[in-house]
Write a structure and sequence with these properties.
The protein is α+β, with helices and mostly antiparallel strands. The chain is built from 10 helices and 21 strands.
């Protein structure tokens, strides 16, 4: 209601009045380019933006998708691709060092050494010119309407496979996306839940979609996540086949446009004020009001295994025995397997019973179990598995930490008595068999880890 809106504005104003001296806002520069397939000319344009950002003492500079080049032919996107060690990117790294400037390089044609199609990669480099994060575009725009239109991004680029958590920068935690990703709000919501203060959408929107949706989508992502949204853009006519909408933009967490370019090559500047953002989140705590008992956002996210042991009841699991880690779960090899390939999947925080898991943890646990089952069946050449949870002492559970047993099954297991597996599971950690050596477990985990990370 109008009254609620007025109250929210009053609360935010008061919060700002009491906190603005605590942390200074950070100035950013946002670039708008009309790139072609002439990479030298594109670099010269970028140089000018870098100089202007340095003069204004920006902490970070944002470049658009295709900051390297916009090809004329479809084949250009493949034949002109290069990798992260290329001299073109080295120029940006050197400029970052010389000017003490962080940069968001919003999408380059990243050559795959295997010879397959390139990725569309967004990288963040720090003031030393080092890569701090890399995100490969997840959503590719494929459209084919016979007799009308055909635009298949998947014919010259391949989709990324990994969620990338927000990267810590001098202006705040930055969530990475590219162009078409803007239309998928789940990615932005996940970034917010993962700690993002700013969402970046370097883009090359077409004229038609830009006129209809560009500002609306950017403001929607800002409002629903309560994040700053930064969208560097391509603009104008790149070649006879390609034109872009422009209107590079910065939107604040309240949905206000605080910086925008028109349709010309140029820059806009804006301040990122984390204190202001925190004030909005405090007075409009919408993420605290989400109904996780009714709906969740499940993400297949791979996490680094790390160097620290992971909890499993009273028995910490060394990282060398772990072969995969997701957002809430991990998979590890077994000290005393009942059958060859018998492994365990468990929550990465101590939880006694299956019913104690949140819906988000439950979804993550069983999705990881499914992924591990698929890998094991392929690795061991079988088409059957036993998936088992012993939940509570009367079920045979001896370690008070939820875990799923996954066992690849073969003809003739237990002399052909298939269900003997349950009796064996009930006693397997208390029988007289010697436990496996650390070396044996390390070797098995390393083998599975290599497969799972491909």
């Amino acid at each position: 209601s109008y009254q609620c809106m007025q109250c929210a504005r009053l609360f935010i104003s008061r919060a700002m009045a009491s906190t603005t001296t605590a942390r200074s806002p950070s100035l950013i520069g946002v670039c708008q380019m009309t790139n072609s397939n002439d990479m030298e000319a594109n670099w010269k344009a970028a140089q000018g933006f870098i100089d202007r950002a340095a003069e204004r003492k920006c902490k970070m500079l944002f470049f658009p998708e295709c900051f390297d080049f916009v090809g004329v032919q479809k084949e250009d996107q493949i034949t002109m691709a290069f990798d992260e060690s290329d001299a073109f990117l080295t120029r940006f790294r050197e400029a970052a060092r010389q000017n003490g400037l962080w940069m968001s390089l919003g999408g380059f044609h990243n050559k795959d050494a295997s010879g397959s199609l390139p990725w569309n990669s967004h990288i963040v480099i720090d003031a030393d010119g080092e890569t701090r994060a890399r995100y490969d575009k997840l959503h590719l725009f494929d459209l084919e309407i016979p007799g009308k239109v055909r635009l298949m991004e998947s014919e010259f680029s391949k989709a990324g496979k990994e969620m990338v958590r927000p990267v810590s920068t001098p202006i705040g935690n930055l969530g990475l996306s590219i162009c078409y990703d803007l239309r998928f709000p789940e990615l932005s919501i996940w970034n917010r839940k993962a700690g993002a203060h700013i969402l970046s959408f370097p883009s090359g929107f077409t004229l038609t979609t830009g006129l209809a949706h560009w500002e609306s989508l950017l403001r929607a992502r800002a409002i629903e996540t309560q994040c700053y949204v930064v969208a560097a853009a391509q603009t104008g006519v790149h070649n006879p086949k390609r034109s872009s909408y422009g209107h590079a933009m910065v939107v604040d967490p309240w949905g206000a446009v605080i910086g925008q370019c028109s349709e010309r090559v140029g820059m806009c500047f804006a301040e990122i004020d984390i204190e202001y953002l925190e004030g909005i989140r405090k007075t409009q705590p919408v993420f605290d009001h989400r109904r996780s008992d009714l709906y969740t956002l499940h993400v297949n996210e791979r996490r680094e295994i790390g160097d620290s042991p992971l909890p499993f009841g009273k028995f910490p699991i060394p990282p060398s025995h772990v072969f995969y880690r997701s957002a809430h779960s991990y998979a590890f090899v077994n000290l005393k397997p009942v059958l060859e390939g018998h492994v365990l999947v468990s929550p990465s925080t101590p939880v006694d019973r299956l019913t104690d898991l949140s819906d988000e943890q439950t979804a993550d646990l069983f999705c990881l179990a499914k992924k591990v089952q698929k890998m094991l069946e392929a690795q061991h050449g079988v088409d059957s598995s036993t998936i088992c949870v012993q939940d509570g002492p009367q079920s045979g559970q001896t370690i008070k930490h939820v875990h799923i047993h996954i066992l690849p099954r073969r003809n003739g297991d237990f002399g052909g008595s298939t269900d003997t597996v349950y009796a064996e599971l009930a006693k397997h950690d208390r029988d007289d068999r010697p436990p496996r050596t650390a070396e044996q477990m390390n070797e098995e985990a390393a083998r599975y880890r290599k497969i799972m990370n491909q």
